[in-house]
Amino acid sequence: MRPRVLARLLQIQRALVRHGLDDFVRATHLYRPFRFLAYLSPWTWFQRSIGVTRGERLRLALEELGPIFVKFGQALSTRRDLLPADIADELAKLQDRVPPFDSAIAIASIEKSFGLELTDIFGSFEPKPLAAASIAQVHVATLKNGREVVVKILRPGMREIIDLDLEVLHYVAELADEYWGEARRLRPVELVREYRKTILDELDLLREAGNAAQLKRNFAGSNLLYVPEVHWDYCRVDVMVMERIHGVIVNNVEELRARGTDIRKLAENGVEIFFTQVFRDNFFHADMHPGNIFVQIDDPQNPRYAAVDFGIVGTLQARDQHYLAENFMAFFDRDYARVAALHVESGWVPRGTRIDELESAVRTVCEPIFNKPLKEISFAQVLLRLFETARRFDMQVQPQLILLQKTLFNIEGLGRQLYPELDLWQTAQPYLRKWMRERMSPWAVLRRARAQLPDVLVALQQVPQIFQTAVRDATEGRLRVSVEPVGAMQLRDEMRRGNFRRDATIVAAVLWVSGLLWLALSAHIHWLGWLQMTAAIVLFVWSRSSKSRGT
Question: CB 3.0-4.6 Å disulfide test: which of 50, 73, 129, 159 passes with 100?
Fold first, then answer.
C-alpha cells in the first residue's frame, strides 16, 4: 500500500470517528490493522461532534471528506423512501448548500483564466455565491451588455483531491478483486475505472459547456425541457458562463402546489424526458438530483423543466440501447421469458443459464410491482430480491450501464417526491413503443442505409485491390489456406458448401448495394431498389440456413 493511500484511509477513519460515526469504522475490515490509532488520538476525541443529530454528523463527515463522498450523499438524498427523514433532510443540503470557498479565491481564479481584471470581464459580479456544490460554486453576474448570467468556478485543488480518492478506491477494488468471492460478478476494478472517467470529465468546464449545448439542440423548441444558453466567449476549462434561469426547485412541492402547478403532468413529463434522452437522443443528463432541476411555471398547467449542471452525461452503445429497449418492452408485456432470453443473449448472465429458471425468478420479482403506483412499491425490497436473483444466476454487473442505473435511481426518487400516485410503467410504455415503431419503420431503415452508403462505396473500391493481391499471391505460390486435418471426402464437401455460401454471399452483397444505389439515386424507381434488397436478404438467409442443413 502506498503511503499516501494509507494516510488517506487514516484521514477517512479519523473523520468518521470525529463525527461520531464509529460503527462505520468498526464495520470496515480495511481498518483492522490500525483502526484503534484514531481512538487513541486526543486530537480526534477533543474535536468529536457533540450535541448534533446523526443526520448532521453524516453530512458534516461527507463534506469534510470531499467531492466523491459528497456525490455519494447527493445520490442517497434523492431516495427519501430508503432513508430516515432526519438523514434525508440533512443529505439534501449537499445538493447545493455545501460550504462555499472564499469569493476572493473565485475572483482570482476567473482573472487568471481570462488574463483580465474582473471589471473588464463582467458588468457586475455578486461575490456571495448563489449555490455551492461538491466540485464548483456558482455566482450571479451580468455581462457588459446587461444580460444576467451565472458564473461557475471550479473549487481549487479538485484534481489532486479526486486523484487521491480515486487511488484509494482503486486500491480497495483491487483488494476486493483478489480476496472477495463476489468480485468476479460485481467487477469492482472495472466499476472504479468507469467512475474515474465520469468524475474526471466533470473537472473540464469546457466539456460541460459542450454537453449543455448538445442537450439544448436536442430539445430545441420543446415544451418539456429548457436548457440555458452557453456564452462560449466566456468559457474556460475552470470557468463557465451560462444564461441565468429562474424557477422553483423541483423538490419544493409545496410551492409548486401553491402556484397551481399540474403536478401529475409534471411527473409524467419527467418520464418522457428521460426516455427521450436515453432512446431517441442517446444522450442523457446523468446527475438528476433536485439541486440541478428547476420548474418554470409561467403556465402552471403546462410546467416545463429547466436543467443545470451538465458535467455528467451518459451515452449507450447501440447494442446495450437495443437490449434495454427490448427488456423494457418485454416487461411492459409481462413477457418474462423474453426478459430472461434477452439477459442471456446480451451476455448479462452466463450462456448456460436455463431460460425457464431465470424466467420464474424474474416473474417473482417483477409481478408484485406491475401496474402499481410508486407509493405502493417498496423499492428497498425489490432491490434486495434483485440482488439475490443476480447472485443466484451469477449475473455480472455491467459497468457501462452504471451511469444509466444511477440516473434511473434519481428519476424514480424525484417521481416519488413529486407525485407518488405515478404509475411509472404505464407512463413510460407509450413513449417507448412509439420509439420502437419509429426505429423499425422502413424510412428509418432507409435513412440508416443511406448513412452507411458512403462506407459501402469505399469498401467496394477496395475489392479490386484485394482480389488483385490474392491472385498475385496465388500465382507466386504465397497464398496459404489453413485447414484442419479431416477426411478428404468431408473436406471436399465442406469446400463445396463454402464455395456455394461464398458465391451466394457475393451475389447478395451485389444485390444489396445495387438496391441501395437505386434508393439513393433514383427519384422514381424505388420499387426496384426494394425488390433487389429483399432478394439480397432472402438469398443471404437461405445460404446461411443451408449451412445448418449441411447442403
Answer: 129
